[in-house]
Design goal:
The complex is a heterodimer of chains A (about 425) and B (about 400).
Chain A (H helix, E strand, L loop, with lengths): L31 H7 L5 E5 L5 E2 L14 E5 L3 E10 L5 H4 L4 E8 L4 E6 L8 E9 L5 E7 L10 H4 L9 E4 L5 H12 L4 E6 L9 H5 L4 E5 L5 H11 L5 E4 L16 H27 L10 E5 L12 H22 L4 E5 L19 H13 L4 E2 L3 H12 L1 H11 L2
Helix pairs in contact in A: 4-9, 6-7, 7-8, 10-11
Chain B lengths: L10 E8 L10 H16 L8 E5 L8 H7 L6 E4 L6 H15 L5 E7 L5 H7 L3 H6 L8 H16 L3 H15 L13 H6 L2 E3 L2 E2 L9 E9 H6 L4 E11 L13 H12 L8 E3 L5 H10 L8 H7 L15 H5 L6 H14 L12 E10 L4 E11 L5
Parallel strand pairs in B: 2-3, 2-4, 9-10
Antiparallel strand pairs in B: 1-7, 1-8, 4-7, 5-6, 8-11, 10-11
The chains are: A alpha/beta (about 425), B alpha/beta (about 400).
Chain lengths: ~425, ~400
């Protein structure tokens, strides 16, 4: 059984910080279908539309009937561990630094035989396991076999932790802890076992109900931080940048205008200044330090979380300029993801539907509660995906957008009349 | 359906060549292939203008193929083949070349296999070995065959009661054979204790279960018997051959290979049975696959490999001589040349030209090939039965 993780000793400042290495990232284009599904926390395999054969590794045609009509379909991943090995040798630096490493050969109930990372709590072959897809430190999907039933402390498994960004014993910056979401986020991250939670706050003259209560939590350290102020961001990075393991950017400026409803640029400019340039300022000041600490011991730098919006996918005209600022932020987050990938630091983009707060007052329910959104973000950090869509509205918009983005555009245009 | 496979008539293999292996080399694959071809021509007493057919196997020739090699080596040919089948390339090259010579498409075919090995070339080859390997094996930390054979070895031990000592017995016998073979990289005897306590590679595999990648080359020449005799060359005759690709694709793990499908045809065509084989060359990148070949080629039943090992001895003078040059486990694995090593050694034994220990009265030999761990298993299998001059017709 997995032994619970212990708090790591304080870092010895004399010892060199090891440089991050990555598992092999090369994949064929067709294999990236596995990654595309794993990015949204799904385990999907190719299924032949003509004969129903499920296959793996990914192919360009059905191995049974040669059809080229292959769809990626969710699988439950149950199967039998046929054989296993523990590697004590690898040609790749990433694995050399992590020996020994357990691998399994699993025959899935749906048919294919897969090579998978093997969780330490899986019983010796032959035994029942469940396989899931997980993004590894290179950001590519790999398969990991887990014990059939959950075991105590299973999240603390050494190999599984290479796929996840668990906040336990890590140091976390929450850029805006004053909003309802920010406060819920601080509490959820503290409850998840973080060592330090820096609670960012801007405009100290503006009291936020509940914020003082957070300061009483032993892990919480308030931090003055205004993302619209380049100097302030630089100062904050100078103070704590070298210690942040997980950065959660909750700062958000949200007004309810399209184009015709408001003259001038002030609201749109404020949205862009916070939602887009704020992210850019943060990335310029904090990302270099995270990149350098991708392999800094048990509590290495692992994740950067962006609070985006489902409106980033397709413009919601009643919140038109806000949607545009989130679309800009999404594009920049993709750039950040590419730049942090070399260090194995995961960029997690969060696309919630309307949050139940004052700036979505006129949006009819269902709206996602801040506490629920915060707990979904913690779950994402404990998981192995990079894009999450919390709440019923976000899930439905995503389904409509994936089905046909143009249809969704027309539906949203109609909703604004 | 009426099946009729033509026999090989008077097709023979001659001029067996093994270049001395080296662990690492600064030379390219072309250097080793050229060296093997030159040695073959010298042994046959032929000028290169007398060769009109060439069959090439190599992993490290890229970006070249056999085509580029014709210009590189100044050869003008009317028959050319490239067999990228790893451990099965020797048997498959022999099959292709034998038919070409038999039909008259070529007068003689030089079959060559070789690879170089730079300090980082093995890793790079593994990373890009195949699309499935790159997508679904290499990212998991075990390049190449180590993990696949670890899975298989563990499964085989569990299912058939094989012990580490059984695999060790074969490895130790091959090492004893290698000590007499001048080109082997391994020069020291191997004890059971050294075998059992060597460092772990991928459980249950330890160091001496795994081949050592190296650089080197092998070659043989396929001719009509009359031509070989006119040249005064010792030879072995080709009695029968088989090949199979992607056999038993629905087995959850590779506990049997393509030989199990084709062995009846192999022995029927040769007119001999397993008991008639005087010398065997298995493809031996890991000992478990040698046991599987002994089973699937009919020397014992499925699952009786461990018992067969306990009942026999495998040195040159043993009850069942196997891999008499030392095999890849003790000579080294020079890339595609590993697919030739066993076949070339069987030719030498039958032609009466051993470089190391000689099997007494070797009349009939069997060389088996196995290659290409594309994903979770080896896809290519093959075997050839050869006879010494004066063996069965």
């Amino acid at each position: 059984m997995t032994r619970p993780l212990l708090r790591p000793p304080r870092k010895n400042p004399v010892v060199r910080t090891r440089l991050p290495t990555l598992p092999p990232a090369g994949r064929s284009r067709v294999a990236l279908g596995l990654t595309a599904a794993a990015a949204r926390d799904r385990f999907e395999l190719q299924v032949c539309r003509d004969c129903g054969t499920v296959q793996y590794p990914p192919r360009e045609a059905c191995r049974a009937c040669l059809s080229q009509r292959l769809d990626w379909r969710p699988q439950d991943g149950t199967g039998e561990l046929v054989s296993e090995t523990t590697l004590w040798h690898s040609h790749e630096l990433f694995y050399r630094e992590r020996m020994p490493w357990r691998l399994g050969l699993v025959r899935l109930d749906c048919g294919p035989v897969v090579v998978a990372h093997l969780h330490g709590d899986c019983a010796a072959a032959p035994s029942r396991v469940r396989v899931r897809a997980a993004l590894d430190r290179a950001g590519q999907a790999t398969l990991i076999a887990l014990p059939e039933k959950d075991t105590p402390n299973m999240a603390d498994d050494r190999q599984l932790r290479e796929m996840t960004c668990d906040p336990k014993f890590r140091k976390v910056l929450i850029t805006d802890a004053k909003t309802a979401l920010g406060q819920a986020m601080v509490e959820a991250i503290a409850a998840a076992g973080a060592d330090i939670v820096w609670a960012g706050y801007a405009e100290p003259w503006k009291k936020a109900p509940g914020f003082d209560r957070l300061k009483a939590l032993p892990q919480v350290a308030p931090l003055p931080l205004d993302l619209t102020d380049s100097r302030a961001v630089k100062d904050a990075a100078g103070e704590i940048g070298g210690r942040v393991d997980i950065l959660i950017n909750t700062a958000d400026y949200h007004r309810n205008y399209g184009i015709a409803a408001r003259n001038g640029l002030d609201a749109a400019r404020a949205e862009m200044d916070m939602n887009y340039f704020g992210l850019l300022r943060l990335a310029q000041e904090f990302a270099p330090a995270l990149r350098g600490r991708g392999a800094d011991g048990q509590s290495s730098a692992v994740a950067w979380v962006n609070l985006l919006s489902i409106f980033a996918l397709s413009n919601f005209p009643p919140h038109g300029t806000y949607s545009a600022s989130k679309a800009a932020a999404l594009s920049l987050a993709q750039c950040l993801r590419a730049e942090l990938s070399a260090a194995g630091v995961r960029v997690i983009n969060v696309f919630p539907g309307p949050i139940d707060d004052e700036w979505s007052q006129l949006v009819p329910p269902p709206k996602i509660a801040p506490a629920r959104l915060a707990s979904d973000i913690v779950e994402a950090l404990r998981g192995a995906a990079e894009d999450i869509y919390p709440g019923d509205i976000a899930q439905e918009w995503l389904a409509r957008w994936r089905d046909n983005p143009k249809t969704l555009e027309r539906e949203l245009a109609a909703a604004s009349h | 359906m009426i099946r009729h496979r033509a026999g090989y008539d008077d097709i023979v293999v001659t001029a067996p060549v093994t270049l001395p292996y080296v662990r690492y080399s600064i030379h390219g694959a072309h250097w080793f292939l050229a060296g093997a071809l030159a040695a073959l021509l010298k042994r046959a007493g032929l000028d290169k203008t007398r060769i009109d057919g060439l069959c090439v196997s190599s992993f490290t020739l890229s970006p070249d193929t056999a085509v580029a090699l014709t210009q590189h080596l100044g050869l003008t040919l009317r028959w050319l083949d490239h067999v990228p089948m790893g451990g099965a390339c020797g048997v498959v090259a022999l099959r292709r070349a034998a038919r070409a010579v038999q039909s008259g498409d070529a007068q003689g075919v030089a079959c060559i296999a070789g690879d170089t090995n730079h300090t980082d070339s093995f890793r790079l080859n593994l990373a890009t070995f195949s699309q499935f390997a790159r997508d679904a094996v290499y990212p998991y930390g075990s390049g190449g065959a180590n993990a696949s054979f670890a899975f298989l070895t563990g499964y085989y031990m569990r299912s058939y009661g094989a012990k580490r000592e059984d695999f060790g017995k074969l490895c130790i016998a091959q090492r004893a054979n290698a000590l007499k073979f001048p080109h082997a990289l391994m020069k020291k005897p191997l004890s059971l204790e050294e075998y059992l306590t060597a460092r772990l590679i991928a459980e249950p595999l330890r160091l001496f279960d795994c081949v050592m990648p190296c650089a080197g080359a092998e070659a043989f020449l396929v001719l009509r018997r009359g031509e070989a005799e006119a040249l005064g060359l010792p030879y072995a005759r080709v009695l029968s051959t088989i090949e199979r690709h992607n056999a038993f694709p629905d087995d959850p793990i590779q506990f049997r290979g393509g030989w199990a499908l084709d062995r009846d045809e192999l022995y029927t065509q040769a007119g001999v049975g397993p008991r008639d084989i005087d010398v065997l060359a298995t493809y031996d990148d890991y000992p478990v696959i040698s046991l599987m070949q002994m089973e699937d080629l009919g020397f014992c039943d499925k699952g009786e490999g461990p018992d067969f090992v306990r009942r026999n001895t495998f040195t040159v003078d043993g009850s069942f001589p196997v891999n008499t040059s030392g095999g890849q486990l003790s000579v080294g694995q020079a890339g595609a040349a590993g697919g030739f090593l066993g076949l070339v050694e069987v030719i030498r034994q039958l032609a009466g030209q051993p470089l190391g220990g000689a099997v007494a009265n070797a009349k009939i030999g069997l060389a088996s090939g196995f290659g290409m761990i594309n994903y979770d298993r080896g896809l290519c299998s093959g075997a050839a039965i050869l006879a010494a001059r004066g063996g069965p017709a």
